[in-house]
Amino acid sequence: MSARETAELLLMVGRLVQFECYDSGLSPAQWMALRFFSRANSFSRTPSAFAEFQATTRGTATQAIKALEAGGYLVRQRSKADGRSFTLCLSDKGKKALARDPFEGLVRAVDALDVEEQTAMHDALHQVLTTVAASGTRRRFGVCRDCAYLGGEVCCTSTSANQSATECLLFGVRIDPKDAGLLCVHYQPKDEHRRGRTPR
């Protein structure tokens, strides 16, 4: 099998999932927004971050967001750090919608593979994504636990004298363990950080 044939298979999988999205009442962009805001951390739940993630214009991203707000799927919350700005979160309706996300069909198909196949596919696709992203000008997204800005510290509590914790070295804030797997717009790959490259 040639590289072109493999790339076409990836494209076809994406098209099938996108077609199912159109058949479910929400547009592919709206489904993407729901997925993004369900997985984004507190620094990234903004229209501009979603536009970066979707690799689209701010205007196009805003249209999807406004439709979801009007439909009651997304709600605005004032930022705790800056009362003038806001973040977007899923409402109960949005969470219920995700439970019937057409994307779950793809998740089940991958889950049907054995563990070794899943691991090999994950590693290969991650490498492909990294290569494609590096050739463009778009910002890359990732999760805190894989980020160059992730740091460790030792803190003392009443229950443990040596309880390890992690923090974001970029913002100087502690990262809750449950947030370490969330998407962040400020993500920087560790290998690029070691080579001295600055984040976009």
List keywords for this structure.
three-stranded antiparallel sheet; single chain; 200 residues; alpha+beta; disordered C terminus; 7 strands; globular
Task: Furnish the topology, listing elements before pairings.
Elements: H1 3-22, H2 28-39, H3 47-54, H4 58-70, E1 74-78, E2 86-90, H5 92-98, H6 104-111, H7 115-134, E3 142-143, E4 150-155, E5 163-168, E6 173-175, E7 183-184, H8 190-194
Antiparallel strand pairs: 1-2, 3-7, 4-5, 5-6
Helix pairs in contact: 2-4, 3-4
Helix content: 40-55%
Termini gap: 35 Å
Radius of gyration: 19 Å
Low-pLDDT runs of 5+ residues are 153-164, 193-200
Give me the strand/helix succession: HHHHEEHHHEEEEEH
How many distinct beta strands? Answer: 7
Spatial strand order of the main sheet? 4-5-6
Note the beta-strand portion. 5-15%
Mean pLDDT, to the nearest integer, reads: 81
Number of helices: 8
Shape label = globular
Query: How can the largest sheet be summarized?
Result: 3 strands, antiparallel
Structural class: alpha+beta
Tell me about this structure.
There is one protein chain. Helix content is 46%, strand content 14%. With 200 residues, it is of the alpha+beta class. A hairpin with a 4-residue loop joins strand 5 and strand 6. The strands form 3 sheets. It has a 3-stranded antiparallel β-sheet, with no helix packed on it. Strands 1-2 form a two-stranded antiparallel ribbon. The C terminus is likely disordered. The longest helix is centred in the first third of the chain and has 20 residues.
